[in-house]
Amino acid sequence: MSKRSSLRRQLIAWNTLTLAVLLAVLGLATHFAAYRYALHSVDSELTERVKPPPGGPPPPRRLPDGLENSDAPGNLPNELGQEGPGSDAITPEQRGPEGPDGDPFGFGRGRPPAQGMDVRRPRVYSVDGVALQPGNTFKPFDPAALKAADEHSALVTTVTFDGEPYRVATRRLRRRLGIQSIPVVQAAYPLSDLNLATGALDRGLLALIPIGVLGAWLGATFLTRRVLGRVSKFAIAAEKMGEDDLSRRLPVDGNDEFADLAGTFNSLFSRLEEAFERQKAALEQQRRFTADASHELKTPLTVIKGTTSMALAGPRIDDRSREAFTEINQAADGMVKLVQDLLYLAKADSGALGADRQEVLAIEVLERAKASVSHLHGAPVTLGTISAEATLWGNEQELVRLFTNLLSNARRHTPESGRVQISVGIDHEVTQIVVADNGCGIAPDHLTKLGQRFFRADESRSRDDGGTGLGLAIVNEIVRIHQGTIQFQSALGKGTAVTVKLPAH
Which residues pair with 489 in a beta bridge? Predict the structure, then answer.
């Protein structure tokens, strides 16, 4: 559950972060796009303002005295919108915003009068910055642009004038014969209003970002819960499946990818169920065969054992017959032990082991196991210091069989000059028993196979030592049935240590 919660939080966080970044990017894009669009509009307006007046020259009128004195006598160029001397009639429509003579170049025609000082009105200067319009005491906004401008297009610049930012368009007018100064028209637009509008837009976007992030979080939470809710249903349905109940299936809802996934898993579970049923039937048949065959072998083996024992006890048996009956008797002993082990495993497979559990003293179990292997050849068995409080929880006979098999294995593979030692430890509610020897040891590649039925680490050994290859398999089954664990540690030429952990209560 914690993993699903962690995944849910990660998805919500990443979705929210992604949408927040997207909102920030869109906000920045909106800011720059709006500013560029507004600036483009300003530039277009300024470019139109500094274009020469369209059409032909205006009606004749007298030139202002100041202009006659500042420029060479003669006619002003037509693109400036005026003629030479002899025109002194001025109509009301020709009055510029700065007075009757305030716009001799025609840039004020058709525009409303300015309120105070209109900075947006086009003004004409010489390239040196001298005003060519009477009454114009306004300094050029961008003196450097007066020299850099040309006649073909307007030069648009951004300058700071009296501490305020301005957008300035400058264009040179065509020079005609009789005019010493090169007229240059310049118009400005204050950017303060544009900056204020952009700032208001930025504040609006910043105010919307928290709302957008909150909405993104709510949407991510809803979508994540909706998606992972389907996964949770799959997990709950899968947890209810077990080895004994493979008939359950994942819920298939809708017609999306999750439905396809659930259908695919359901098909897989169906195939697994069929395979498990076939395997279960085969194992049951194998168990039944092993139990039946072992049970049927008991009677003839008993007859063989009894017959050979009677023959060997007879007074009139010759040496050759005695040798033959002895071999038959030994073979019968081996077969009897093998049949007993097979029957024991058949009981384990059928679940008949592990009954009648009780709390027993570990020292009593180990003493009985030690006595059971006392007749075998090999290293002596020694018991370490064992606390009288050390207990085991299980079937006493089965626990004795477990440690008898371990001690039998250890003695057979340890020379008489070696040692087999048992040590017991208690860890909370678990009792740990270690059976260690300093015998021949086991190869590393054989350690993982220990406990498999009929597996022998040394294939060259004969069965004359009494081994059937089922001793450790029985040990594994007893440990498993008693909810314990077993671990093998070994090194060739140094010995083997087997650690068994069993419940103490």
Answer: 497
pLDDT at 63 over 60: no
Name the phi and psi angles at 323, rounded to 5.
-65, -40
Residue 502 has what pLDDT? 92
In tens, the pLDDT along 219-230 reads: 777 877 777 777
Rounded Cα–Cα distance for residues 248 and 381 (Å): 53
pLDDT tens, residue by residue, 269-282? 888 878 878 877 77
Measured N-to-C along each axis, helices 2-49 and 192-239 cross at an angle, to the nearest 10 degrees, of: 160
Non-local (6+) Cβ contacts of 279 within 8 A are none
CB atoms inside a 10 Å sphere around CB 195: 14
Under 8 Å CB-to-CB from 113, ≥6 apart: which residues?
97
Q: Is residue 90 within 8 Å of residue 96, measured between CB atoms?
A: no
Classify residue 89 by burial, with Cβ atoms within 10 Å: 0-12, 13-18, 19+.
exposed
Minimal CA–CA distance to 348: which of 395, 392, 302, 391?
A: 395
pLDDT tens readout for residues 446-503: 888 787 777 776 654 444 555 667 888 888 989 999 999 999 998 888 889 999 999 9
What Cα–Cα distance (Å) separates residue 145 from each residue in 129, 150, 155, 157?
A: 10, 10, 7, 8
d(Cα 248, Cα 262) in Å, to the nearest integer? 12
Using the predicted structure, report yes or no on whether residue 3 has a pLDDT greater than 80: no
User: Is 432 within 8 Å of 499 (Cβ atoms)?
Assistant: yes
> Which amino acid is located at 276 in the chain?
F
For residue 293, the tally of other CB atoms under 10 A from its CB is: 13
Alpha-carbon separation of residue 353 from 23, 176, 369 (angstroms): 68, 123, 18
Domains of the chain: 50-190 (no CATH), 257-349 (1.10.287.130), 358-503 (3.30.565.10)
Spatial strand order of the sheet with 495-503 comes to: 381-383, 420-427, 430-437, 495-503, 485-491
In order of 20, 128, 166, 483, 493, the CA distances from 141 in angstroms are 43, 13, 8, 95, 102
Tokens of 418: 């070696």
CA distance 408 to 497: 14
Amino acid at 194: L
pLDDT digits (tens, 9 = 90+) for 399-415: 999 999 899 888 888 88
Give the predicted TM-score (pTM) of the model: 0.47
3-state DSSP of 300-358: HHHHHHHHHHHHHHCCCCCHHHHHHHHHHHHHHHHHHHHHHHHHHHHHHHCCCCCCCCE
For residues 106 and 95, give the distance between their C-alpha atoms in angstroms, rounded to a whole number.
9
